[in-house]
């Protein structure tokens, strides 16, 4: 379940409106995440492919503001509002409350308070306590909750997250972008050092940005991470 301090009811209600039109919960949540990620990357073609899929299923019969694409945008705005108010993993909380958690795949995210405790015991120092740039890595990042918690304590660090679940990797990329962190997010199995896709999020005074790395970029990132781990 979502952490009690994070109210995600409005977002859930908006997504449920779309689901009630004959879509599965998984497809609605997946498409919402992908639409947000494509919009932030200004990738029009894959964005419109998702939108067109809903249009083909009678979505244009609904009035303006009630079409599925409008509701997806509304949920995005609601998410941004809750993120601005809490700096917490609102997206992960929606994932849990919406019923996306899975016993089969072990997809139950670490509670926020446990993340805070874990960040404390890792010895991550506050941003004013060191001149050296720190790195924070999570090899099974889920929605990126641990990285967000560390990011609030040391926003100038470099964050690296990896998860074999494609949806979780995308959620982490979104979260790192929302919190305006410098980060690399990898879709792949950290145990087998497998990289399938990767995203880079970057800090700027105007807000975070996100981009998907091309094949060469993924290969370079794989080499850098492998070398870094071998040194450790």
UniProtKB/TrEMBL annotation:
Q: What Pfam families does this protein's entry cite?
A: N6_Mtase
List the catalytic activities from the record: a 2'-deoxyadenosine in DNA + S-adenosyl-L-methionine = an N(6)-methyl-2'-deoxyadenosine in DNA + S-adenosyl-L-homocysteine + H(+)
Designated name of the protein: site-specific DNA-methyltransferase (adenine-specific)
Decide whether keyword Transferase is in the record.
yes
User: Where do the TM regions start and end?
Assistant: none
SUPFAM superfamilies of this UniProt entry?
A: S-adenosyl-L-methionine-dependent methyltransferases (SSF53335)
InterPro entries, per the entry: DNA_Adenine_Mtase (IPR051537), DNA_methylase_A-5 (IPR003356), SAM-dependent_MTases_sf (IPR029063)
* Organism whose genome encodes this protein: Haloarcula mannanilytica
Alphabetized GO MF terms: DNA binding; N-methyltransferase activity; site-specific DNA-methyltransferase (adenine-specific) activity
UniProt keyword Methyltransferase, yes or no? yes
Q: What class of enzyme is it?
A: transferase
Enzyme Commission (EC) number? 2.1.1.72
Give the record's GO biological process terms. Answer: DNA restriction-modification system; methylation
**Gene3D superfamilies referenced in this protein's UniProt entry, alphabetically:** Vaccinia Virus protein VP39
Q: Which keywords appear in this protein's UniProt record, sorted alphabetically? A: Methyltransferase, Restriction system, S-adenosyl-L-methionine, Transferase
DNA methylase adenine-specific domain boundaries: 87-193
């Amino acid at each position: 379940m979502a952490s009690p301090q994070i109210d995600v009811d409005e977002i859930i209600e908006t997504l449920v409106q779309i689901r009630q039109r004959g879509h599965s919960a998984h497809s609605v949540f997946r498409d919402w995440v992908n639409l947000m990620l494509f919009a932030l990357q200004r990738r029009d073609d894959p964005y419109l492919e998702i939108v067109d899929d809903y249009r083909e299923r009678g979505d244009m019969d609904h009035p303006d503001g009630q079409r599925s694409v409008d509701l997806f945008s509304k949920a995005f705005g609601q998410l941004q509002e809750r993120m601005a108010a809490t700096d917490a993993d609102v997206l992960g909380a929606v994932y849990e409350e919406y019923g996306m958690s899975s016993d089969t795949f072990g997809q139950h995210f670490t509670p926020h308070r446990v993340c805070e405790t874990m960040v404390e015991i890792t010895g991550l120092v506050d941003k004013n306590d060191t001149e050296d740039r720190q790195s924070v890595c999570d090899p099974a990042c889920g929605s990126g909750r641990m990285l967000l918690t560390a990011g609030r304590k040391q926003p100038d660090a470099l964050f690296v997250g990896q998860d074999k679940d494609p949806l979780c990797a995308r959620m982490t990329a979104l979260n790192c972008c929302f919190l305006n962190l410098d980060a690399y997010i990898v879709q792949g199995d950290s145990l087998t050092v497998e990289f399938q896709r990767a995203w880079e999020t970057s800090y700027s005074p105007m807000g975070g940005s996100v981009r998907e790395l091309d094949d060469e970029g993924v290969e370079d990132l794989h080499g850098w991470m492998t070398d870094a781990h071998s040194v450790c």
